[in-house]
C-alpha cells in the first residue's frame, strides 16, 4: 500500500477530479483542519472518503467522519490540572474560532463549574488575526488570578501561551500551569518549559 499526501488548502472540484484521475486511489481521507470549504462526498464518485476532524453534521448522513472525543480529552486535562489543588482556571481558545475549540471550551467550562471553581475564558467569538490574539492574550494572562491552571485549545495555542507567559516573566508552573491537547512532540518538547499535552 501507498499513501499519497496532497497539501492543498482550497480543493476545487476540477483539482480534485484531476488528482483522483491521476492517482486512482482506493480511498481518501480529507483532513478538515481549518478548511473553509470541503469537497462533498459526491465529488469523489465511488471512491470511499472519510472526513477527519470535521463537524459530524457537515454533510449529514452522506459522509463518514472521524472526530476527537472532546468530553474524554478535556476531562483528562481537567483531572491533571485539578490534581494541583488549584482554585483558579482558564481556557484559551483558538484564534481561528474553530468548532473543536468551542467544544473543548464548553466541556472545560462544565467541569470547572461543576466543581465550584473559578474560570476565566479567552476564546474569540469569531476568527481573529493571530497578532491581535497574541496582544490580547498578554493582557488576559497578566490579569488572571494566580496560581492558575490553563487549558489551551491545542498545542499551537499552548505554545503561544507559554511564549507569552515567558515574555511576561510569569513562572510556569507556579503561577501558570499549562496543559493542551493533541500531543504533538515537535511542539511540546521544543518549548521551555516543555508543554504537557493530552
Tell me the strand percentage band. 15-25%
Q: Which geometry do the CA atoms define?
A: elongated
Number of strands: 8
Write down the Rg. 19 Å
Order of helices and strands: HEEEHEHEHEHEHE
Spatial gap, N to C terminus: 30 Å
Provide the residue-averaged pLDDT: 92
Annotation field: number of helices: 6
Biggest beta sheet summary = 5 strands, parallel
Secondary-structure-based class equals: alpha/beta
Low-confidence stretches: none
- Tell me roughly what share of residues is in helical segments: 25-40%
Strand order of the largest sheet: 5-4-6-7-8
What labels describe this entry?
198 residues, alpha/beta, 5-stranded parallel β-sheet, 3-stranded parallel β-sheet, 36% helix
Walk me through what this model shows.
With 198 residues, the chain is an alpha/beta fold. 36% of the residues lie in helices and 17% in strands. Helix 3 links the parallel strand 4 and strand 5. The two termini are 30 Å apart. 26% of the residues are buried.
Question: Would you spell out the secondary-structure blueprint of this structure?
Answer:
Elements: H1 13-23, E1 28-31, E2 49-52, E3 64-66, H2 70-82, E4 88-92, H3 99-114, E5 118-122, H4 130-143, E6 148-152, H5 155-167, E7 176-180, H6 185-188, E8 196-197
Parallel strand pairs: 1-2, 2-3, 4-5, 4-6, 6-7, 7-8
Short description:
The chain is an alpha/beta fold and 198 residues long. It has helices at 13-23, 70-82, 99-114, 130-143, 155-167, 185-188; strands spanning 28-31, 49-52, 64-66, 88-92, 118-122, 148-152, 176-180, 196-197.
Amino acid at each position: 500500500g501507498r499513501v499519497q499526501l496532497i497539501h492543498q488548502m482550497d480543493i476545487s472540484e476540477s483539482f480534485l477530479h484531476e488528482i483522483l484521475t491521476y492517482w486512482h486511489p482506493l480511498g481518501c481521507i480529507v483532513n478538515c483542519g481549518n478548511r473553509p470549504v470541503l469537497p462533498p462526498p459526491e465529488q469523489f464518485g465511488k471512491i470511499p472518503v472519510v472526513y477527519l476532524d470535521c463537524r459530524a453534521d457537515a454533510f449529514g448522513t452522506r459522509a463518514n467522519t472521524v472526530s476527537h472525543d472532546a468530553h474524554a480529552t478535556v476531562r483528562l486535562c481537567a483531572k491533571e490540572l485539578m490534581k494541583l489543588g488549584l482554585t483558579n482556571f482558564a481556557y484559551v481558545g483558538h484564534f481561528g474560532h474553530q468548532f473543536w475549540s468551542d467544544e473543548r471550551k464548553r466541556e472545560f467550562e462544565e467541569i470547572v463549574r461543576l466543581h465550584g471553581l473559578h474560570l476565566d475564558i479567552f476564546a474569540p467569538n469569531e476568527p481573529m488575526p493571530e497578532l491581535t490574539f497574541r496582544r490580547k492574550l498578554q493582557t488576559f494572562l497578566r490579569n488572571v488570578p494566580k496560581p492558575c491552571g490553563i487549558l489551551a485549545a491545542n498545542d499551537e495555542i499552548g505554545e503561544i501561551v507559554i511564549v507569552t507567559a515567558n515574555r511576561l516573566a510569569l513562572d510556569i508552573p507556579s503561577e501558570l500551569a499549562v496543559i493542551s491537547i493533541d500531543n504533538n512532540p515537535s511542539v511540546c518538547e521544543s518549548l521551555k518549559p516543555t508543554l504537557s499535552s493530552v
